Amino acid sequence: MDIANFEFNALHLPSPTEEIFDECWNSKGIQVFVKRDDLIHPIISGNKWRKLKNYLQTFSFSTHSGLLSFGGAYSNHLYALAYAGHSLGIPTVGIIRGEELTIDSNAYLAQMNAWGMQLHFISRTAYRDKPIPTAFEKYTVIAEGGFGELAIQGMGNLVDELPTCDLIYTAVGTGATAIGIAKYTDKPVMGILTLHNRSEIGANKIPANLDIEDAYVFGKYAKQNDELDLFCAKFYQKHGIPIEPIYTGRMFYALMEHIKNGHIAPNSKLVALHTGGVK
Ligand SMILES: Cc1ncc(COP(=O)(O)O)c(C=O)c1O
User: Fold this and answer.
1) How confident is the model over 28-80, as pLDDT tens digits?
2) Which of 19, 47, 145, 205 reaches 20 to 30 Å from 151, CA-CA?
3) How many other C-beta atoms lie within 10 A of the C-beta of residue 5?
């Protein structure tokens, strides 16, 4: 299947935008809209299609053997890449952090393997250097988490789909999504860090309209937190939109705190990007 056909037939694009209501913001005349990129596809959901599309397209015009990327045992990015490769007939390789792991270590690894992704498990020390096994030197390499110029460019289409607003919220992992959105809009963008990597993101070209908030990491990346888990459960109960604590939970929590603390001007119109991750 070619990429344009896949996008047209298998993906829900443009994704919908819906308004959510809460006394906390409605009392201040603030409106909150959720851009439901989580509904693009059950697997290549959220920012995954936006970030991968240009890599898939560029690969399809190249003479490379496939696509190779890096990640942990639960990487949303590798999971989406494995599925995209399977759907589009593109060979994929995942270099996985943790030599003690096997394809049976968890259901995600087993599923990625079943989709045809070749999984290579390497030690955490070796992983730091992101080595490319010689057998895969002819593969197009996508950085960990999908970060890269092509991923950033993928946010152009997303920005075209957004309603007019005063401020855009998104979760930040590698920063590709936030940087990309800020690059294609002249509105202010608030990126909520999910790990303490502000200095790494700062090493990239950060557009002047992107603000990075680091007060809602909750300790460290993906660390379980009862308050966040409860927040996500209540959010789902109230708005009927599933969120998870690692990315969108932290982002919506921060958004709500910003409103409560008076950081958002009354009568503002906000758009929060649902980057998916609920797999
Ligand atoms: C669900 C989800 N939301 C947000 C992000 C952060 O996106 P980025 O790495 O582009 O900052 C990720 C990581 O890729 C993710 O899996």
Assistant:
1) 999 999 999 999 999 999 999 999 999 999 999 999 999 999 999 999 999 99
2) 19
3) 10
Tell me which CATH code domain 65-138 carries.
3.40.50.1100
Contacts of 116 (CB under 8 A, 6+ apart): 82, 85, 86, 91, 92
| Confidence label for 152 from pLDDT (cuts 50, 70 and 90) | very high
Among 275, 278, 279, name the best residue to mutate to test ligand 1's pocket (greatest count of ligand atoms within 8 A of Cβ): 275
Domain ranges of the chain: 3-43+148-273, 65-138
CB distance 276 to ligand 1 below 6 Å = yes
Q: Cα of 277 to ligand 1 centre, how many Å?
A: 8
Q: Kindly give the distance from the C-alpha atom of residue 123 to the centroid of ligand 1, in angstroms, as a whole number.
A: 24
The answer to whether the CB of 154 is under 6 A from ligand 1 is no
Both tokens of 161, joined, read: 């789909």
Rounded alpha-carbon distances, angstroms, from residue 186 to 25, 96, 171, 181: 24, 37, 19, 9
Assigned fold of 3-43+148-273 = Rossmann fold (3.40.50)
